[in-house]
Amino acid sequence: MQRWMNIVIVLLLTLMSVATAMLSLSALSDRYSRIISDYPQQSRSVFLTDIAQESSNSALDLLKTKVTGAHGIIIRTDSKLADNDEGAACGYLIGVFGDVQRHPDDARLTAFGSTVFDATTLSKLLRAEQHATLGLDQNRADMIADLPNVRYGTSVTVMQLDRLAERSGTVNGEYRIIGLSQSQYDALVSSLSAATGISTERLQQPLHGSDTTDNLQRTIAECLLAAAAILLTVILVLGAYQQFSTLGIHIMLGWSRIGYAWMEYRPMLLWSLVTLPIIAAGVFWGVTSFPFSGQLTAYCLTRGIVVCALALLAACLGSCVFLTVHPVDAIRNRISKRGLLVVLVILYCCSSGALVAGGTAMDSPMREVQHLSAIRASWSPYRSMRLLYHETPGTNQSSFTGQSSEHFKETYEWYSSIAGQQGAYIANMTHYNEDNLQSWKTIYHAAPEQPFWQLDASPNYLTDQGFAIPQGVTDRAKRGERIFLIPDTWTARQRTAMEKYQKLDSEHNAEWKGSIVTSYMKHRDISFVTYHPSVKLFTWNTDGTLPNWTTDPVILVCTPENMTPFEGENLSAVGLDNSMIKLSEPAAQQYTTRRYFAQYHLEDNNPQYIPVDDFIAGLTKTATQTIQFFGLAMAFLAALELVLSIAMCRIFAATYRTRIAVKRLLGYPLVSIFAPTFLTVVLVSTMSIAIAAFIHSTAAFAFTALLAVLQTVILLSDARRIATKELATMIAQE
C-alpha cells in the first residue's frame, strides 16, 4: 500500500483504540454502579419518606433499636452528586449500622472478582470515630481505608449510618435490613408505622425511582469508533484495487491470493494486536485501588478484541477483492466492477442515510436557537431582570436527590428575609389549557370552565407593574390568607367554578409534607376578590403559540406567609418558565452576595441569579455547541460521500478505459459516458432529498440538496479530466 495509506491506517486504529477504551471504561463504571446500587443482594427494605424533622431522630432510633435486638444490619445507599454538575450522579454514599460480623457473607461487597469491602473492614469502620470513612468523602484525614473507584465514573464511600443521616440532613431514604425474619420485619414495619404515622404499605414501597441515559462523551466515542471503522474498510478496499498489478505478478510466481492478502494486511493486523495491551492499560488506568483479579484483568485485556475484530472484518472485505480477480486480469489491470462498485454503492447509500439522520437530529437545536431568539425579542423589556440559573448540591445532597427538603427551606427563609423589598419579586405565570382542565376533573372532580392564565405574584411586583391591588389585600396576604384576584368580566358561574377549584387545589397542596410550614397551613384561610382587567401583565412565557401579554389572569397575591409547601419548594426552581423569584440588578447586588447567603446556609450551594439576557445567551450557546458538534459529524459524512462518489467514478473509469476513450472521441456527453456513476448519485441524492422533505427536516433537506449540487459539479469536473486523459492515452498508444 502507499505510504499515506499506512499512516492513515495506523491513525485510524489508534483512534479506534481510544474510543474503545472510553466505551469500556464507561461500561465498567455503569456495571460497578449497578453492583453498588443492588447491595446487599439478600435484604428487606424499609422506605422512610416525608418524615418530619422533629420526629426524624426517633424514627431512626427505633429502626436501629429493633435491628440491634435481632443482631441485624442496616444498609442505606444514597447517590453522590458532583458539585460542578447539578444533578449528575458521580457515585454512592453507603451508611452502615449493626452486627456485621454476624452476617459476613451478606455484608461483603464484591465487584469484578475483587472484594470492595467485607465484614472486617466494616467492623473497623463502626469501631472508629463517627466521621471515619471507607473511601474518600470530604476530608482525606477521615479515610481509614481506600476503596476501589472508577476514574471519572462511579465512586463509593462508606460511613456510619448516623454520619450519613447527619451529612445528608435527613433520615429519608431506603433502609435495607439484613438478618431479620419475616415476623421480625413485620413487627419493625408496624412499630415504625405507629411512630411516624406512615402506613405500612408506604413503608414497604418505594415512592421514587431513577434512570440513566447515555452521556454525550459516550455518544461521541461510539460515533468515532463507527466512523473510523468505515473509513478503515474503504481505505483497505481501495488499496486492494491499487495492488492488482503487483498481485498478478505474485500469483504468476506461485503465491496464493490468501498469502498475498496476508502479506498486505499483516502489518495492520499485528498493529491491531498491539492495541490490546494499550486499551487494557487505558482501562487499568481508569480503575483506582482495584486489586488485580482474573475477572478484572480478563475484562481489560479483552476490550481490545473489538478493534481487532473490526480490523479483521475490514481486512476480509479487502481480501474479497483479491479473491475475485484472475491472474492475467490482475497483471493487465483489468478490474472487474463486481465487488468494489457494490461495496462503494452500499457505503454511499449508508453515508447518505446517516447524513439524513444527522440533519434530522440537528433540527432540534436549530429550532431551539430560533426559539431562543424569539424569546430574547419578546422578553426585551425584562432583559435585565435576574433569574435563578444554577445551584450546586453543596452539603444538601439529599435535597437534590429528593430525600430531603432542607435546601428548599433554606431558600424559603432567604426569600422571606427579602420579601417586599424593592426589586425582590415573586412572578410566575402559567397557562392552563383544556388538557389541564380535563386532568383536574379526574383529580378534584371539579375544574374551571375555560382555559386561563394564573399569575403568582408578590404585592410589590403587582404594584410596580401599575396594577392597583384592592384595599387591605396585601395586609391580609401577609397574615397568611390566600387571596385570589379574579377578573370581574367573568360570569358568576365561571367565578364559582374557579373558586371551587382553587380551594381544592390549595387544600391539596397544603397537605404536602416537608420542612416548610407557613401561616396559611395553620389557619387555611382562602378568599376571592374581583378586579377589573385594565393593566397588561407580562406572561413570562416561552411558548411561541401563546401571547406575551394578558390583562385578565387569575392572580394569587403571593407572600411567604400564604404559600403552600409546593410553592415554597418551587422558589428553588430553575429556568425561564419555572423560576419564581425575580430580582432587579440592585436587589441582586444586595441580596445574592456570599455573605448574605451564608446567613441562610446557602453559600455552599452558590445560587447564581443572572440577567434574562445572559440566561438566554447561555442556553443559545449550549444549543449552538450542539449544532457545531452535529455540523462536524455531517461535514465528515459529506466528505465521505464525496470521496465515495469520486471513488465510484474512478473505479468505473479504470474498469472501462477503452469504452470511455472511444465515447469521448465520438463526442458523447460526460453524463452519458459515466451514466452508472451519475445515475447512482442522482437516485440516492433524490431519495435523500425526498425523505428529508417527507419528514420535514430542514437541516437534512438543505445538506442533501447542497451536497447533490456539489457532487454533480465535482463529478463533472473529475469525469471531464478522466475522459480527456483516457482519450489522450488511447491516441498515444495508437
Automatic annotation (TrEMBL):
Regions that span the bilayer: 224-247, 268-292, 304-328, 340-362, 629-653, 665-684, 690-716
Record keywords, A-Z: Membrane, Transmembrane, Transmembrane helix
Top-level taxon of origin: Bacteria
Name of this protein: Amino acid ABC transporter permease
Species annotation: Bifidobacterium thermophilum RBL67
